[in-house]
Amino acid sequence: MNDHSHTPRTKPRYSATFDEYTLSEIRRAAATGIYDIRGAGAKRKVPHFDDLLFLGASMSRYPLEGYRERCGTDILLGTRFAKKPIALKIPVTIAGMSFGSLSANAKEALGRGASAMGTSTTTGDGGMTNEERGHSSMLVYQYLPSRYGMNPDDLKRADAIEIVIGQGAKPGGGGMLLGQKITERVASMRTLPVGIDQRSACRHPDWTGPDDLEIKIEELREITDWEKPIYVKVGAARPYYDTALAVKSGADVVVVDGMQGGTAATQEIFIEHVGIPTLAAVRQAVKALQDLGMHRKVQLIVSGGIRNGADVAKALALGADAVAIGTAALVALGDNDPHYQAEYEALGTSAGAYDDWHEGRDPAGITTQDPALMARLDPVAAGRRLANYLAVLTLEAQTIARACGKSHVHNLEPEDLVALTIEAAAMANVPLAGTSWIPGSNGNF
Amino acid sequence: MNLVLSRVPPDAATHVDLATSSLRELNSALHKLAPDTHETLWKVANPAGRHAIAAGLDAPVTVEIDGPVGYYCGGMNKQAHIIVNGNAGVGVGENMMSGLIHVKGDASQSVGATGNGGLLIVDGNASARCGISMKGIDIVVKGSIGHMSAFMAQAGTLTVLGDAGEALGDSLYEARLFVRGSVASLGADCVEKEMREEHRALLAAKLEAAGILGEVDIGEFRRYGSARTLYHFHVDNVSSY
Prior knowledge:
Chain B: It comes from Ancylobacter tetraedralis. Chain A is α/β, with parallel strands linked by helices.
């Protein structure tokens, strides 16, 4: 009876708290003494648009015929103060991504794809290049704390100005670009030494708080003779108050970026633990606009984890005027393509998981400044893929809008939605599916 | 457009009174000036602390403002010479590209913030964050400057005849700082550096541009610059990130 070889044994049990990823991060931290830096947005699972469903038309609602009845998608941005608002043909724009973090070919491809579909692209924390201005029929010029490359000539040749207070991946954090990507051209555009690990400021250098921002916006309007729409972009953290203060400061457009929104590079811990999900931010931002009587007068752009036409339609139904895409646009260009699986493995990762964008070794030639890698991305073909993808997003959103009986995607409304989970119902302020219950709803968020 | 313009000989200046004309009218008229304009001298009365006066200019003209200006006077200036006969609010000459801005009084925070070029002179004192994130501008302050000046300053020169407040040059890049008086403290990665002949020549050129070469002893200045220890992420610098 002492034969231990037959004694039943429990299987190895792995901790849910100390899971495989956590253990690897502890070992990495112990070996290096410095935090993990990566690109992209939050990767953890958070309540998202997938947790909402459209009800569609039935006895009490009339649907529109799919191929015969018009469903509009156009949008005018900047109608509050700007003499020259931006007219987009589709309610999907390209979010700010810098030359520096992205290759010149990638920026050109974004411009080509967006322009083909009648929508805008956005510069990033690194100034405006001639390539992106030339290939973008509508270009939004970001005004960031670093002011890298900022100059009045580019300000005047932009179609709109986006004052960046923060972004969803890192509300309260500044930009970061590591030395591998600070080539001579990138360095000269930013007035920095070549090859340094660059840390952008997180606060603007010449204003603090909404009262100052109001004066700053007045200055930018004066410099550009009140022509350009001025956006204010915030990372989703306190979207009700941030939106209200942006409106108070004189913004034409408010951009709210949820935690799934990507970044070129920042600390992993920042990306995963600061800020709130996109789903949780939309209704708060909309409520701020409604409370001020400014809904649809100041336009709202929502970004962070938009992937398909359902996400677009849901954001619009919750009250946004348009959405912006970043990560999805890069994937459309060719980012993380399985075609390069062997090379991703050589970098210690896998197609679909590659996020060390700051290292500048992107096999797809997108998040790099390496001339050989960059040359792999054909900006014409990649631009075509982005245009195709934008077309699909739009067609899908129209499909849903027609099914809900709407002749314009902006006619989608919260009443068209229900939630699959209690969390999503509370965040989106729509009923749990099959019930009339809106958790936590007493008119206040 | 009811801009009240009056050209009074003999100086043939164009006079704008902001008590009767709007800021928009003034800036709009200044923006419309052609590069070869003959209206090269403008005199602005009653600024009364208005913001963004003469912002976004791009013409070789002189604008003389008689009185105090608010935020962002001469913001993003190109070419123009802007004289403020009074005090200036936050961010005077912010992001200026070229030309000259001369504040005859004191200046508030963020003088010449992110400025790329040109010369900015403050006859009096400048407050906190003077020259923050400067990118090539030359700033000369005849009085003293406040705390956190030249924060993340990337390029250009900051010359101070008086004293500097705490944390001068924090997270400095390649801007060069010359201070004649005391420095309350240096910010992270900012160190005093040897004043060699080339630096004395550089400082002399800036003093000459500001019209005060010979009025001060170059030997009294000390030079500050980046130790460049924060240029690369490293575990030993972790407390500075």
